[in-house]
Amino acid sequence: MPKTKSIVFIAWKRLSRRTELLSEALGAKLLFFQGNFLYLSAAIATIKKIAKIKPHAVLVQLPQGPLLLLTLILKNFYGFRLIADVHTGFLMKWEWKSLLLNLPFKSLLKYCDVVVIHNEKMRNLLHDSANKKAMIVYDPWFMIKPLPQNFKEKYIVFPASYHPDEPLEEVLGAVKELSPDVKLLVTGDWRRRSYLKKFESKNILFTGFLSKEKFESLIANSSGIITGTKEEFTTLMSAWEAVAYTKPLAVNVTQTIRECYDSYPVFYDWKDKKSITKAIQDVLSSSPKEFSRKNLMRMTIKSVNNIIEYINTL
Question: If DSSP codes are grouped into helix, strand and coil, which group holds residue 86?
Fold first, then answer.
């Protein structure tokens, strides 16, 4: 993989797994500032670090909008190249917070040197001025170093964020009607949608938030992964993690999902309980699709190399 000039990758409030992996793939220095509600402490820390490092290029994880505004201002002082890694949460109206903290800053994307998107469909969410600067970079799942496997029991994992776009309730409802031998482990902080605990049973377990090491061990020793999103334009790190660990994958069908993950997953319709149960049964009885995985590997590495080469020309 080609080397890059001096790069920093900045994230505020929440650090995504994608940002961790992409910063490693690009050889970027990762700067994460949790900050407070108004981001004042994060903003001050960002200004100090930029002044000290004086990087050639700055990548920002979006959301959050105020981070984009601040780095655009700093760009005028320090002359670095600004690259926005745009998550769908920055472009779509999920809830009132996104209306306040993200959408007002969407028009600023046209002032960035590069707008990184996660899939081709996201172009439909960009203004023409930003679309001209857009490059697709898939989640660099090939940077994940899978743990050794030590199978002790058969189970599948739903790596949940508890975001409203996940078809988690539908999957839980389907699993509840399957044989008790089918065990589903749901990761993440279930308190975000506490009413889902009603589904807990002998074959449905909510693990709560896990450390990185425990989560990776859980994935490594699973029989497969099930995940999904009800929204178009969205790709899923949980699906890329299944590919990284060479695990059978079930995911619901959207155009974006089908285009991004090729023929690797078993697809299901989240509105159809029979479709969900069949997908789970297929995951438990199938093997990973190695040929498709190799295609995804080539596609992903090429997208990362493209952005590295482009940064070096800026």
Answer: strand
Under 8 Å between Cβ of 8 and 50: yes
Output the six-digit token pair for 237: 């790190």
Residue 188's pLDDT is: 95
Task: Give CA separation, 185 vs 46, 154, 190, 268, in Å.
Answer: 38, 11, 12, 19
Model confidence pLDDT, tens digit, residues 68-86:
999 999 999 999 999 999 9
Q: Which part of the chain has CATH 3.40.50.2000? A: 7-137, 143-293
Pairing of strands 7-12, 184-187: unpaired
Task: Answer yes or no: CATH 3.40.50.2000 is held by domain 7-137.
Answer: yes
| Fold classification of 143-293 (topology level) | Rossmann fold (3.40.50)
What pTM was estimated for this model as a whole? 0.92
Residue 150 corresponds to which tokens in the numbers above?
């030590």
Question: Would the CA dihedral through 248, 250, 225, 119 be positive or negative?
Answer: positive
Task: Give whole-number Cα distances, 211 to 12, 140, 189, 253, in Å.
Answer: 20, 21, 12, 30
CA separation (Å) from 89 to 53, 95, 102, 150, 165?
Answer: 29, 10, 8, 36, 11
Q: Which one-letter DSSP state was computed for residue 314? A: -
Q: In 35-142, where do the E strands start and end?
A: 57-62, 81-86, 114-117, 134-136
Q: What is the CA radius of gyration of the chain?
A: 20
